[in-house]
Amino acid sequence: MNHCRTVIIVIILLTGLFLTARQTEPCRTVRYDDSNGLSGTLVGGGLQDGNGLMWFATWNGLDCYDGYEFHRMKIRPGDSAAIGTNRIRDILLSEQGNIVCRTDDDIYEFDLSRYTFRDIPEERKDSLKGKMGRTWRGLTDRQGNIWRADPSGLYKTCFPHHPARLLDGTSGAHPRSLMVDRDSMLWVGLRNNHSINVYDRSSTLVRTIPLETAPYCIYRTSHGDIWIGGKPGALIRNGGESISPDAVYDMAEDRYGRLWIATFGAGVKCCENPQAMEPELSESLGGYKVRKIIITPSDNIIAATTEGLLVGTVDSADCRNTRLMPVRRDGNRPGSLCSNAVMSVARDTRGNIIVGTESSGIDIISEERLFDDKPEFRHLNTGNSTLASDVCRAMALVSDTLLLIVGRNHVMALNPSTEQTVNFGRTFWNDTCRFAETEPVMLPDGTWVIGAEEGAFCATPHNIYSRGYVPPLVFTTLAVNGLAPAFCLASRDTLFLEPDQRNISIAFAAIDYTDNSGILYRSRLDGSPWTGAGPVRNVTLFNLSPGTHRLEVQSTDRYGRWVDNNRLLSVVVAPYWYETWWATALFVLVVAVLAGLAVYIIMYIRDVNRQRRDLLEKYMTVIGEMEARSMQDSDCLTASPEDMAPLVPEQKPEDTAFLNRVRRYIEENIDNPDAGVDSMADAAAVSRSTLNRHLRAQLGISATQLLIEARMQRAEQLLRARSAGEPLSLSDIATMCGYSDVRYFQRVFKKRHSVAPADYNG
């Protein structure tokens, strides 16, 4: 009875505390069951391990939750435990950091280093039984989230924290314009209230200025006058009468003291003398819907419209002479403006013009290049950068290297030079935040003021730059060669792979159970540059080389800021036998032996060919001398076997007779273009194959090559005679050498001598 009374009191106290928490801070409750990943709706226990992972005992298995998905721990080959049921009643964390599981009939341990179940020695079971078997009342994780269960499933109650605060007096008023005056007073134009709130340096509301129009812009001139532009049409100076019926979205003053007015439907107008008693506006420069206008130090005017950009240079003498030219998207040119629906435009201190579009990201171009005939923009969007959104509703330069970009529910801090972005989503501002087309401002103390439909949000430097909760990063699952994940990696620092396990996919998660929707991830292998930078939380590695690789991953916090939670995993890939050092050494040895043998064979062949080439040269020399004598004497060239004998020593009689028949054929047919191998074989009284075989054996040359050599020898003699004054044309020489085509003769001669016949002088 006393036990029941105690339980009731505890429940009442917990309920009271929970209700108190709900009253002091908004909360969000999420239910998990078998429809969204939980193995079973009946949960008997839960805990958080040393890596930050949540573990739950269900009546359908042991579940691990990383904030994104549930991983069910199953009995696998190699488990030493004799566990035969998935009904796990309770769990606790052992002194070794493992998960102790109680089933209906026994107690087992799940080893987190190996991710396997194993039996527990009997002597340990007695001490554990007293700690298990109690009804699970829930738990609070390290972030303060409350986990509880009932027969319908598992419940998580979160208490989100939003670093930004809502400015008093702006709730639900839809601030549409912001301005900080010379006294550091903040002016907030409220669209829904048709009024302007003025705040002092401590953000205290000091006065409210009623208007007859919604204030879309507030501008302070160099003379200290306050101009208010409204929609529907209004242009008011210092709270006076309306000057123009046009809807005014923005204003900018040039260095000549003239005020340029951006109207939504009547283009750009100019007030020549803003201090006049009754200031007048110029005629419209184009009938465009203009949202934003800037004037650069170079007197260039740039306007953002619903139909692209308007650019031009202000006329120093007369504003009516200013001409604005359109810059629009060209679908056939990738470097053109990414969209004509331009919401805002800004200029950084380096002279870059940043263009924000309605839904296509931003474009960046230098001010000088903007005036080219075909300006080339650099595009940034969610596909090629770390921007969290392609929507740009407003922009403002808050420092030399920082540009604030306001999206639909994100504020993005961009460095235009490095293209690095820090994203602040709804978790930073408000769960339902929807930002307006309001240009942000920065107060003297560095506080950002951002306009949203819910009101004006303020973010202090401390909230912006302090890291707060750093989510621990853990490796979760591993897939090898496309197969399903075999085990978890949370507690591993080294992964060993077999030689055939070269393709792997590793998943990871940053543990933030309050809100992980804005967390981004990036990875790198072996010190290479970071890749990823997005919400994807896995990396796939293909064709890993044998050896040790270092995989490093990092994440942001829930606000999109990179934090120091880098996690390293060493991946050791075993080599195939042919990739080992001894296999490499053996291969080098074999290659060296084969190379030495190849060199020996090549040198031997070269020596044999050299001997044959020397014999051939002597043979051709004899033929050349006989040809020379034939040119001096009309008698036929003759040579006795005795003349040839010294050149082919130790020749058999039949070989000598064979060579003489070949020689006579060449002498008689050297000028015959129809001379060939077949007729030469007939003259030598042998077959074609026998002719070539004998010539290669005795002279190291084929019949065709021998005929060409003889003709080239004769050509050399005739060309030398031509150089000495003989009246021989190239056509004559070609004919005397057996070539009917003088051009073919020239090609053959040049190929052999590397010089044209006309340039040959012996």
Quick overview:
With 762 residues, this protein is of the alpha+beta class.
The CATH architecture assignment of the domain at 594-759 turns out to be Orthogonal Bundle
Unreliable residue stretches: 1-24, 633-649
Structural class: alpha+beta
CATH superfamily of the domain at 594-759: Homeodomain-like
**How large is the radius of gyration?**
46 Å
Topology-level CATH name of the domain at 594-759: Arc Repressor Mutant, subunit A
Question: Can you tell me the CATH class of the domain at 594-759?
Answer: Mainly Alpha
Structure write-up:
By secondary structure, the protein is an alpha+beta fold. Among the domains are: 2-158, Hemopexin, CATH 2.110.10; 473-579, Immunoglobulins (Immunoglobulin-like), CATH 2.60.40; 594-759, Arc Repressor Mutant, subunit A. It is 23% helix and 31% strand. It has 12 helices and 46 strands. The strands form 12 sheets. Strands 40-46-45-42-43 form a 5-stranded mixed β-sheet, with no helix packed on it. Helix 10 runs antiparallel to helix 11 (730-736). The longest helix is centred in the last third of the chain and has 52 residues, at 581-632. It is flat. The termini are far apart.
